[in-house]
Amino acid sequence: MGGFNLENLNFVLLWPMLSLFFWAIVLLLLSAFKNFSKSFYTSVSVMALLGSFCLLCVFNGFRLDSTSAFFGLFISDNYSIFAQLIIIIFSIFYLIMDKEDKRAEFFSLFLFMIGSFILMISSTNLIVIFLALEGSSLALYTLIALRGTHNAISASIKYFTIAAVGAGFFAFACAFVYLKIRSLDLIDLLNSEYISDPVLLSAGVMFLVIVGIKLSIAPFHFWLKDVYYGAHTNFVAFISVVPKIAMIVVVLRIFSALGGGVKFEYIVAFLAMFSMFSASIAALVQNDVKKMLAYSSITHSSFVLAIIVSGINLNSQEGGVVYLIAVLALFLYWIAFAFANYGLFLILSLFKKSSYESFAGLFDKNPILAVVLALFVLSIAGIPPFGIFWGKLLILASILNSGYYAMVFTIALSSMIMIYPYLKILIYVFFKKSDNITHEQLAIEQKIILGICLAGSLGSVFLLL
């Protein structure tokens, strides 16, 4: 203890997270004394996120090696930094584009949730990950229910109930890991001599339950359609992107530590193939666009799980540059998906209903909006030359390098099946006629976000010129 000082804690690495907790408390206290307008809370929340972004860039930055704080409980590496940037940027986008009236508590809980996401992706200790995961999840359940409608409250309770089961499996998995290696740090697990032990395989299967729930992988997806239908449309866009990128980093850390010795990747590969195929079949029979996009989200999450499987295999067999390319493909794919998904849901939020018939005649009334909607649909469908196509191409190349040919076939088949539900939207937009189509007008802030999303979705096209 004689050599201990506060500098050893490396406190500056925690400032991006702690600043969000600070502003969350400030907003909570302000709401107790005075009822400010929604624009005030939105402005303060955006400034808090921008401040966290600046602190992240100044004190963390991108580096070749990782640094740690609080005796290794908090780490800063390229995984966590890149994911934090995505989380903060798309959280700001959501706050700016959402025009629904909200209570003051919403913004405080929102900042607490983002801070918990940052903590979750910035640790290799299973207890810290578990606490951050549950903290962010409790905030998310409450944010869904704060809308106050029967569907929103019902969806929140269903999500909470299913995720509580997953939390139990996570706790049991942590106990199994500690039983074998006497540590709860994933780095110790990666370097463990017990990596081929069947007890650790059992722990991996238990981890897979919470992963399936949080990434909405079939058959753990039963909460998703209710949330998509019950939550506000713009918040659905946030749920489908930001919490999942945080979980993707956790999955990378846990599965990479478990991969190789116990052949855990084969179980994950089977689940990914089953999920993407069953979800694409279910999407065919949906009559509501939001429900169809719920199943679309399952297929995209399954694609991400597939690239993680190939990453596990490459990491255990070859490692190095090939593994980094697989991880890069994962992040590029999810960024392209995030831009297209945000833009698509922003347009959907302008309509009171989300059935396919609601978009009939849109091209006749507002051709510009119809064309922009078509570009987002083509992008999220993976039609070349738009962004997600190139991300999917990188994923397929990485999976081929790892030798999972059956998974490549399943991805191709699932993508072909999903083309019909996507194109069905365009059929109603361009070829169906209706005199009763009505939609709200875009505010100036929403037009800016829509333009950014469109530029992000079309960015890969310009890179090819």
UniProtKB/TrEMBL annotation:
InterPro entries: NADH-Q_OxRdtase_suN/2 (IPR010096), ND/Mrp_TM (IPR001750). One of its GO terms (cellular component) is endomembrane system. One of its GO terms (molecular function) is NADH dehydrogenase (ubiquinone) activity. Residues 123-417 form the NADH:quinone oxidoreductase/Mrp antiporter transmembrane domain. It comes from the Bacteria. It is found in: Cell membrane; Endomembrane system; Membrane. One of its GO terms (biological process) is ATP synthesis coupled electron transport. Keywords: Cell membrane, Membrane, NAD, Quinone, Translocase, Transmembrane, Transmembrane helix, Transport, Ubiquinone. Pfam families: Proton_antipo_M. It catalyses: a quinone + NADH + 5 H(+)(in) = a quinol + NAD(+) + 4 H(+)(out). Its EC number is 7.1.1.-. The keyword Transport applies. It is a multi-pass membrane protein. NDH-1 shuttles electrons from NADH, via FMN and iron-sulfur (Fe-S) centers, to quinones in the respiratory chain. The immediate electron acceptor for the enzyme in this species is believed to be ubiquinone. Couples the redox reaction to proton translocation (for every two electrons transferred, four hydrogen ions are translocated across the cytoplasmic membrane), and thus conserves the redox energy in a proton gradient. NDH-1 is composed of 14 different subunits. Subunits NuoA, H, J, K, L, M, N constitute the membrane sector of the complex. PANTHER family: NADH DEHYDROGENASE (PTHR22773). Belongs to the complex I subunit 2 family. This is NADH-quinone oxidoreductase subunit N. It comes from Campylobacter volucris.
